[in-house]
């Protein structure tokens, strides 16, 4: 009787395998997306800014999305990612690289893209707040056309959630061009239950308050209960003068502030690579001041005073 049962089990298993192979053979073959342009980008950023956050206790995630206008009938696109250490160490995050295959719908409806969430585990020892860069790549050996990438790289912050509670800066230095807003991430390490407020100040370096940046309307940042990160915003002003790069520093102060407690912002001078002269020039006979009355001037003019 036992032999008969064994033979029946073997036959059932063989029948299941044959059925699966037949279904696979009858199913339409999925092919690589043949659209002329396929777009791929990062998504699922943290609500406070274009970055991702992980903790030692819970790990973290990021998402990869393909544009939804071109690929049809289950066509796929392979996307490769990597987590490149900045202040993290090799082996702190897992996986540090991998492949994501994005599929279009197979139900015969509208063309579509796809979105995948990638889980990242924190397996190393994190001190305070450390940083990696998540980046979308292509397989250099595949011989396939590269998808069109945008938003292909972003900071991936890793926070020590098991340390004593403190408030620290996420970046020791940042760079921003004229006319934009510097958004400086501030993190809580350790437990995050309950509200927490710390003060901050903006210390001029070579940049001038009111001329190169606006003083923030508030001098404190408040974390609500359960919030891991907040952002300090400083509006950087633009001008037409060739001044070179300038800087200022945002400094945290108050009880419970840890290290690093400050971020130095370098303002990129957008006129640094043109041929216009530095500073302001005034025409001696006419009330013209360079560059505001000469926005088109890209060559050096010498203004001489007539006798």
Taking the sheet with the most strands, its summary is: 10 strands, mixed
CATH architecture of the largest domain: Sandwich
What's the β-strand tally? 20
Number of helices: 1
Number of domains: 3
Q: Distance between the terminal alpha carbons, to the nearest Å? A: 123 Å
Q: What is the residue-averaged pLDDT?
A: 79
**Morphology:** globular
Helix and strand run: HEEEEEEEEEEEEEEEEEEEE
Structural class: mainly beta
- Kindly provide the radius of gyration, computed on alpha-carbon positions and rounded to a whole number of angstroms: 28 Å
Q: Which parts are unreliable, with pLDDT below 50 for 5 consecutive residues or more?
A: 20-28, 275-307
Q: What is the share of helical residues?
A: under 10%
Q: What would the CATH topology of the largest domain be?
A: Immunoglobulin-like
CATH class bucket of the largest domain: Mainly Beta
* Oligomerization: single chain
Would you identify the CATH H-level superfamily of the largest domain?
A: CalX-beta domain
Residue fraction in strands: 35-45%
């Amino acid at each position: 009787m036992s032999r008969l049962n064994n033979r029946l089990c073997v036959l059932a298993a063989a029948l299941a395998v044959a059925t699966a192979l037949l279904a696979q053979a009858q199913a339409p073959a999925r092919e690589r997306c043949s659209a002329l342009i396929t777009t791929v980008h990062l998504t699922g950023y943290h609500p406070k800014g274009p970055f991702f956050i992980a903790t030692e206790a819970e790990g973290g995630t990021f998402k990869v999305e393909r544009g939804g206008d071109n690929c049809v009938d289950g066509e796929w696109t392979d996307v490769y990612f990597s987590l490149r250490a900045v202040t993290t160490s090799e082996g702190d995050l897992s996986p540090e690289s991998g492949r994501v295959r994005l599929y279009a719908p197979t139900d015969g409806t509208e063309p579509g893209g796809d979105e995948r969430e990638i889980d990242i585990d924190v397996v190393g020892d994190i001190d305070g707040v450390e940083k990696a860069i998540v980046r979308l790549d292509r397989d250099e050996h595949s011989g396939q056309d590269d998808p069109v990438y945008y938003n292909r790289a972003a900071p991936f912050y890793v926070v020590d959630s098991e340390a004593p509670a403190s408030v620290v800066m996420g970046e020791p230095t940042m760079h921003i061009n004229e006319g934009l807003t510097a958004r400086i991430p501030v993190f809580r390490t350790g437990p995050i239950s309950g509200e927490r407020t710390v003060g901050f100040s903006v210390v001029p370096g070579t940049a001038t308050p009111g001329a190169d940046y606006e003083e923030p309307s508030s001098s404190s940042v408040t974390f609500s209960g359960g919030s891991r990160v907040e952002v300090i915003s400083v509006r950087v002003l633009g001008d037409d003068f060739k001044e070179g790069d300038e800087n200022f520093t945002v400094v945290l102060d108050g009880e419970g502030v840890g290290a690093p407690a400050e971020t130095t912002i370098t303002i990129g001078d957008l006129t640094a690579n043109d041929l216009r002269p530095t500073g302001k020039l005034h025409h001696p006979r006419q009330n013209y001041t360079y560059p505001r009355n000469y926005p088109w001037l890209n060559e050096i003019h010498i203004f001489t005073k007539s006798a």
